[in-house]
């Protein structure tokens, strides 16, 4: 066993790659950004990821039923219940893997702001306050979005592409979505009047935003986004592109080996059994 501290963005990826030959299991002790960094080091390998969620947000750990106390999370690691899950990757400035949700629009602007603003606040309250703050200054950018055979041109507010269902410490942006469904769920919010945005944030938190005119859900395996101006793109709270006006999102051919909680594994097995019939 070797313990190493992450000191900068992408450091977890570097640490993982530097030690990839020495260990079979890599445990993330931190927030979603640390998990994402390790995933980018483990992608396309046969190594296993474990999660000890002790940081900010913990959306991916919650998705996998790795939640509760520190001791409960350690017990899940000790039980060592493994499965394989889909990974997505984005190609923009660089190629970047994600296991939960990647997005662009006002949510990626909020994620970028979280690096330097309200650092003393954690989890959902932090992202909620930043969201209210950034709404006043955000100007929607014209975008052309393609999801398989579906196309939409819109003034983009949010485009979230996911294998999981929540981000930002508890915003239920893709309600009911699971990483064993075999494709992405995509939420596109555009051409929504600005006075509705504050209401929309609360609706996203509760997962009830689908009834707002201008908000659409689509499923697909390949997503292409072109924007009129540069927008940051982020995954699991880590901004991985700031200078691109084009991005493509696809499912990786290889899957992620990961230790999960009993409830998640039970639901995955039940889903796979139903869909074999």
Automatic annotation (TrEMBL):
Domain DAGKc: 1-94
Protein name from the UniProt record: YegS/Rv2252/BmrU family lipid kinase
Organism the protein comes from: Candidatus Heimdallarchaeum endolithica
PROSITE patterns for this protein: DAGK
Pfam families referenced in this protein's UniProt entry, alphabetically: DAGK_cat, YegS_C
Keywords: ATP-binding, Kinase, Nucleotide-binding, Transferase
Gene Ontology molecular-function annotations: ATP binding; kinase activity
Record PANTHER family: SPHINGOSINE KINASE (PTHR12358), SPHINGOSINE KINASE RELATED PROTEIN (PTHR12358:SF54)
Signal peptide: none
Entry coiled-coil feature ranges: none
InterPro entries per the UniProt record, alphabetical: ATP-NAD_kinase_N, Diacylglycerol/lipid_kinase, Diacylglycerol_kinase_cat_dom, Lipid_Phosphate_FormReg, NAD/diacylglycerol_kinase_sf, YegS/DAGK_C
GO biological process assignments: phospholipid biosynthetic process
């Amino acid at each position: 066993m070797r313990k190493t501290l992450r000191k900068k963005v992408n450091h977890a990826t570097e640490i993982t790659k530097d030690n990839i030959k020495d260990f079979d299991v890599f445990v993330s002790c931190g927030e979603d950004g640390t998990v994402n960094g390790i995933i980018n080091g483990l992608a396309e390998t046969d190594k296993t990821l474990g999660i000890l969620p002790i940081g900010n947000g913990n959306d991916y750990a919650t998705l996998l039923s790795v939640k509760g106390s520190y001791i409960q999370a350690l017990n899940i690691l000790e039980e060592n219940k493994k499965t394989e899950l889909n990974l997505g990757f984005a190609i923009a400035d660089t190629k970047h893997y994600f296991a939960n949700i990647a997005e662009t629009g006002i949510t990626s602007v909020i994620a970028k702001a979280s690096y330097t603003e309200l650092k003393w606040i954690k989890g959902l309250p932090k992202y909620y306050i930043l969201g209210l703050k950034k709404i006043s200054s955000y100007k929607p950018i014209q975008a052309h979005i393609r999801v398989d055979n579906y196309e939409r041109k819109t003034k983009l507010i949010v485009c979230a592409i996911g294998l999981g269902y929540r981000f930002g410490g508890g915003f239920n942006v893709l309600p009911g979505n699971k990483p064993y469904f075999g494709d992405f769920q995509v939420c596109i919010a555009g051409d929504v009047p600005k006075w509705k945005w504050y209401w929309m944030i609360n609706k996203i938190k509760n997962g009830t935003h689908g009834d707002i005119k201008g908000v659409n859900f689509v499923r697909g395996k390949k997503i292409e986004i072109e924007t009129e101006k540069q927008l940051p793109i982020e995954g699991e709270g880590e901004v991985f592109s700031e200078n691109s006006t084009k991005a493509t999102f696809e499912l990786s051919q290889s899957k992620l080996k990961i230790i999960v909680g009993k409830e998640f594994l039970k639901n995955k097995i039940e889903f796979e059994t139903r869909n074999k019939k």
